[in-house]
Amino acid sequence: MPALKNQRIDLRLTDEDKSMIEEAAAMTNQSITQFMVTSASERAAEVIEQHRRLILNEASWNQVMEAISHPPAPNDRLKKAAKRLKDRE
Fold this sequence. Notes:
This protein is about 70% helix and about 0% strand. It is mostly helical and about 90 residues long.
C-alpha cells in the first residue's frame, strides 16, 4: 500500500511562472502537482549529489592537496600508456 501523501508546501508565484509551469505540465501530460513534485525532486537529488561529491572533510582535503602538490612519480604502466599515446600521434 503506497504511503499517504499528507505533506504540503505552499508557494507564491508570479503569473508568468505559474503560466509556464501549467504549460510545461500540460506538455508532459502531468498535473501541476505531479510536474512540480517530479521537477523539484529531480533537482533536489542533483543538488544533494553534487554537494556530496564536492564537500570533503579537512583530512580528505589535505590529502587531495598533498597529492596535487607532490604527485607520485609515474609508474611503469603510466609510462607505457604515455608511450602508446605518443606513438599514435
